[in-house]
């Protein structure tokens, strides 16, 4: 395929909002209230962490929106970091997306889809004799292999769908999002108005174990909340395919994030009104239960089937939205000789199909590598490094490009972006302390980008292509 083809600007504001929300609402809205309850032992503090997570996410989104309005292009932060910092840092970010952030997000979402599907229909285990086989005592690729194989098949199918064109993928996300909204609002309405609900319990700040809530526990709980909010920045990856991107990206991010914050507060208050903290702690300890299913069962005896289907639909939509958006960064990198060259081509539908394939293969490998919570904690540790870097870019670009037209300026400057940067530093340090294994694996995968950068650079030199001055580190 020719490398001179250009991406098609086909997304308006409505589809931008759909992609933003579709990338956010996934498994976290159903699962993450349980680990938060296990950390905090207080329903009121769980809701506080959802609010804090939403506020910090919004601060990051508003800061990102200013930069997106100024520098909108395909690749999102990869394109922004070339202007804010240098190509080396931009490459490390793009490589981190490939090795950890976006591919692990695809893997974990597909994993929850597969778990929900298996809860609806009993499928015999595959290769049970290899379930205890491990790599270094850390990775168990054949444990729950039937679930993992289902997740892999989903990734393969959705990758194929997205090779047919951007509007095909976005259209599927729109249809799924309508069903998800309907299902979530049914849970909120019937759950909150049922005789089993006690809304006052949702706001109780007392802990069930009579111990005070610690700073570290709040940060650990917020890792779960941030997984549920994760994904809003993915709209920047398709910046080159958005109409009037410098206006529609900031507007779409803001509308999408505010919508999700409201939905999350309503649905989690409903869960907490239906299930006391000890019940949520039991759900978390069980490992194979989902909080939303247990909450719905408390007021609707046969509701487990309904919520399982809803989780299927939601994770299908979020997996699709993540696959749709993420591969565009690798396409942008490949066009500059900083990724595998085949990823630089477009197919007949003007879609970076080879980039989708590379993404698909590594996401399938990650499905075999770990559990859902391992993957999500690793993602949040990695992604907040770059959320902080993007927000710091607001200050840098105000100095570098003071007179450049900005369709949107971050509200509350300089306080809002400063709070976001400080929070990212605190979360980075706390995650190393409370989740050292996940932080270590995430850091190792990101740092593999250093030798890969030099390998791509040598390949450029062999082709006798000129190296831009800013690529020299």
UniProtKB/TrEMBL annotation:
One of its GO terms (molecular function) is L-amino acid transmembrane transporter activity. It comes from the Bacteria. It is a multi-pass membrane protein. It holds the Pfam family AA_permease_2. One of its GO terms (cellular component) is membrane. It is found in: Membrane. InterPro entries: AA/rel_permease1, AminoAcid_Transporter. The chain crosses the membrane at residues 12-30, 42-62, 88-113, 133-158, 170-193, 213-240, 252-274, 305-331, 351-372, 378-398, 410-433, 439-456. Keywords: Membrane, Transmembrane, Transmembrane helix. PANTHER family: AMINO ACID TRANSPORTER, SOBREMESA, ISOFORM B. This is APC family permease.
């Amino acid at each position: 395929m020719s490398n001179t083809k250009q991406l098609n600007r086909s997304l308006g504001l409505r589809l931008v909002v759909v992609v933003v929300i579709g990338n956010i609402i996934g498994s976290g809205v159903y699962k993450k209230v349980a680990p938060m309850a296990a950390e905090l032992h207080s329903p009121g503090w769980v809701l506080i962490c959802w609010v804090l997570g939403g506020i910090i996410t919004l601060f990051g989104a508003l800061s990102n929106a200013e930069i997106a309005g100024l520098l909108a292009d395909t690749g999102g932060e990869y394109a922004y970091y070339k202007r804010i910092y240098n190509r080396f840092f931009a490459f490390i970010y793009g490589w981190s997306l490939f090795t950890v952030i976006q591919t692990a997000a695809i893997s974990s979402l597909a994993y929850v889809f597969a778990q929900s599907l298996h809860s609806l229909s009993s499928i015999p285990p595959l290769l049970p004799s290899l379930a205890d086989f491990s790599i270094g005592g850390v990775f168990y690729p054949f444990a729950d292999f039937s679930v993992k194989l289902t997740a892999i098949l989903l990734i393969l199918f959705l990758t194929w769908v997205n090779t047919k064109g951007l509007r095909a993928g976005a259209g599927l996300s729109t249809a799924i999002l309508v069903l998800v909204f309907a299902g979530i609002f049914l849970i909120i309405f019937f759950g909150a108005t049922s005789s089993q609900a006690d809304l006052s319990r949702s706001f109780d700040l007392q802990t069930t174990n009579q111990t005070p809530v610690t700073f570290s526990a709040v940060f650990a709980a917020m890792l779960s909340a941030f997984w549920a909010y994760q994904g809003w920045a993915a709209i920047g990856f398709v910046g080159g395919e958005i109409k009037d991107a410098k206006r529609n990206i900031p507007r779409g991010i803001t509308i999408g994030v505010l919508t999700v914050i409201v939905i999350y507060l309503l649905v989690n208050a409903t869960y907490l009104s239906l299930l006391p903290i000890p019940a949520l702690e039991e759900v978390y300890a069980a490992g194979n239960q989902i909080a939303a299913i247990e909450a719905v069962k408390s007021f609707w005896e046969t509701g487990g089937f309904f919520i399982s289907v809803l989780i299927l639909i939601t994770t299908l939509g979020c997996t699709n939205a993540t696959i749709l958006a993420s591969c565009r960064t690798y396409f942008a990198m490949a066009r500059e000789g900083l990724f595998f060259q085949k990823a630089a081509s477009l197919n007949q539908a003007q879609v970076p199909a080879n980039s989708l394939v590379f993404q698909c293969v590594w996401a399938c490998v990650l499905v075999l590598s770990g559990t859902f919570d391992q993957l999500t904690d690793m993602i949040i540790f990695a992604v907040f490094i770059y959320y902080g870097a993007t927000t710091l870019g607001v200050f840098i670009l105000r100095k570098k490009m003071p007179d450049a037209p900005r369709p949107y300026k971050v509200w509350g400057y300089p306080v809002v972006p400063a709070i976001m940067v400080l929070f990212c530093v605190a979360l980075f340090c706390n995650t190393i302390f409370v989740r050292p294994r996940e932080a270590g694996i995430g850091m190792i995968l990101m740092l593999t980008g250093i030798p890969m950068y030099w390998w791509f650079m040598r390949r450029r030199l062999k082709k006798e292509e000129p190296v831009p001055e800013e690529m020299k580190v």
